[in-house]
Automatic annotation (TrEMBL):
SUPFAM superfamilies: RmlC-like cupins (SSF51182). CDD domains: cupin_Yhhw_N. Binds 1 Fe cation per subunit. Keywords: Iron, Metal-binding. It holds the Pfam family Pirin. This is Pirin family protein. GO terms for molecular function: metal ion binding. Coiled coil: none annotated. Belongs to the pirin family. The lineage of its organism: Bacteria, Pseudomonadati, Bacteroidota, Cytophagia, Cytophagales. Residues 11-121 form the Pirin N-terminal domain. Fe cation binds at H59, H61, H103, E105. Residues 149-235 form the Quercetin 2,3-dioxygenase C-terminal cupin domain.
Amino acid sequence: MAQSIFHQADSRGQANHGWLVSSHTFSFANYYNPERIHFGALRVLNDDMVKGGMGFGQHPHDNMEIISIPLEGDLEHKDSMGNVAVIREGDIQVMSAGTGIYHSEYNHHPEEAVKFLQIWVFPNKKNVSPRYDQITLQKNDSHNQLQQILSPNPEDEGVWIHQDAWFHLGNFDEGKTNHYAIKKSGNGVYAFVLEGGFQINGYDLGRRDGLGIWDIDSFDLKATSNNSRILLMEVPMHISHN
């Protein structure tokens, strides 16, 4: 039987540091909720706003797959592998921290805010060589359909990570529907509404609401307003490290 967990937008953990305003779907930094540590291999889903000219100074990560999705503005990235890049709305950035990496993230614009999702996924392999990649999506590929933006396969569409995970973005007109089939048995899906609203599995979701679904083979979604945008994150529900 299908199981699900619904997280309303206003139930997320809040952090306001002045230069950074962040909403945490799962426990992170000073926000701790023992019932919201992770959803399967999905460990972090942060909805961040960084003021102009500000950002995160150099800091370390290891053994984590880190995905950044800019929603507005430009985010500047630098890391210990020598990568220097700016990621913008419509781009997807991925970093396999593996054996260890240092990086910094700053708002590339001196005045306008940058808004982005920071997502962490537990890897299925530890101590891999650190890796960085970014791509620019074709916006029309997500109109009234789900566009794959991440998978476990380097040859597949989107970026790839060391985990049996698949991410999709969709931008739907009101009343449009889509059928999603689970890619791998034992996986679940965490649906996160970026804009507008959706009906999924008997739930009405609004902007920034989240719904986790597992023990299911497929489900349908329906947009309840125009310009409704959603991110689906399919991940293993049981975490294992090779």
